[in-house]
């Protein structure tokens, strides 16, 4: 192990003992920023490179800033990371590729899960039913002919893929693009879910990554 890596791991461990630092997600990116920049931490009220550190961490700033002592510790009583996620539609899905990769035995380091589209849309269905009630009693205008049209899909299955290990949001997007996924959901505990073409919403809201459950 390189000396710089040893120093980084010791530094990161000292913070993670006191703070809610997600080492599985942040280690590689924080290590890169620490090596390239001026340690990414304020000293005696002077933080000349704080802006550079923020730009270096990029989209991981919110999740990783406490690993380098640049933001207040996360309150462990707050909503758990597994209950929060980021979703995005992918620009160039390849449905045939996704189906081929998820048909039969699951590839190594992945888990394929299929469930009824009706289950995927249950939350949306409840919300639309509530809006329909408002429409009846308060003259709220709703678009479309039938708000339940997309929910009436009892025979369709939504197929998603979970990666066993924790990954960054950038890796999650890249992995899902490479296997032809239509969308992805990245949970804030670093679990990655690739969403197939038959899914009408953003897949499952449940974390099922074997080595990244908390």
From TrEMBL:
Superkingdom classification of source: Eukaryota
Keywords: Developmental protein, Glycoprotein, Secreted, Signal
Localization per record: Secreted
Pfam family, one: Tsg
One annotated Gene Ontology cellular component of this protein: extracellular space
Keyword rRNA processing: no
Signal peptide span: 1-20
Ranges where the Tsg N-terminal domain occurs: 20-77
Domain Tsg C-terminal: 81-212
Gene Ontology BP annotations: regulation of BMP signaling pathway
Family recorded in the similarity comment: Belongs to the twisted gastrulation protein family.
Protein's name according to its UniProt entry: Twisted gastrulation protein homolog 1-B isoform X2
Species: Carassius auratus
